[in-house]
Amino acid sequence: MKTTNTAKIQFNEVNVSSLKAVVNMYQNKSALNSNSKDKSLYLINNLGLPLSVASFENRVIGYAFVTINNAEEPEINSYWEKEFYSIEAEQSLKFHAETIFNSTFKDAEKRTAKIQNAADKLSNWLSFCN
């Protein structure tokens, strides 16, 4: 497993054990206060593909994910718990996510389709599990 440390924040690839924390953070950040069916649709359409997590004292405090933007290009974004956010930590997390992204999606011609397919499968699986 690839791990990077910045100060006391640790950066790791997203795995099954950290995915629950990522989904919980994602659901908490969304302003959607509807029934569970609407939340599942929102999850499918907006989660993206989580790549990397930031942890502090074994607690996930942020994550980076890739989505396909309006120009049909991959875009890496992040979300943080407010009290842990810093520009330096965000840059480190995004760098870690870019490293994972580049090693996972090497074929630039098929990259967009593969990302969208993986994100759709993950979102559908998570919706099924909820």
Description of the molecule:
This protein has 130 residues and is of the alpha+beta class. The chain is built from four helices and five strands; from the N terminus they run E-E-H-H-E-E-E-H-H. Strands 1-2-3-4-5 form a five-stranded antiparallel sheet. Strand 1 and strand 2 form a beta hairpin. Helix 2 packs antiparallel against helix 4. The relative contact order is 0.18. The model has no long low-confidence stretch (mean pLDDT 85).
List the helices and strands and how they pair.
Elements: E1 3-6, E2 9-13, H1 16-29, H2 36-46, E3 49-56, E4 59-68, E5 74-80, H3 87-104, H4 111-129
Antiparallel strand pairs: 1-2, 2-3, 3-4, 4-5
Helix pairs in contact: 2-4
Task: Summarize this structure as a short list of keywords or feature phrases.
single chain, 130 residues, five-stranded antiparallel sheet, 4 helices
